[in-house]
Amino acid sequence: MFGKEDNTFNDLREKSVAQWLEELSTHEDIVVRGGVKVSREYIESLKKKIELLENKSALKDKYLKKLKGGK
């Protein structure tokens, strides 16, 4: 029914942020370099949380389909 979701913008944005963080990782200020590490870890934790929520949502959808269909 629905086509594959277009993630072009999100992919471009993610690559841009990764490139920006890579450039900042060579900054002379240690606080900036530390901020890069914290930012990367935060982004990864958000990705894991998104994946968990998507899995929960898919499970709920599956359950609701069974209830609706009576199967």
Tally of contiguous helical segments: 2
Instruction: Give the low-confidence spans.
Output: none
Radius of gyration: 19 Å
Would you count the extended β strands for me? 0
What is the element string, with H for helices and E for strands? HH
Largest sheet: none
Described by the principal axes of the CA atoms, the overall outline is elongated
Q: Which key phrases capture this entry?
A:
single chain, mainly alpha, elongated, 0% strand, 71 residues, 2 helices, 80% helix
Description:
This protein is mainly α. 80% of the residues lie in helices and 0% in strands. It has 2 helices and no strands. The chain has helices at residues 8-24, 30-69. Helix 1 runs antiparallel to helix 2 (30-69). The longest helix is centred in the C-terminal third of the chain and has 40 residues, at 30-69. It is elongated and about 65 Å long.
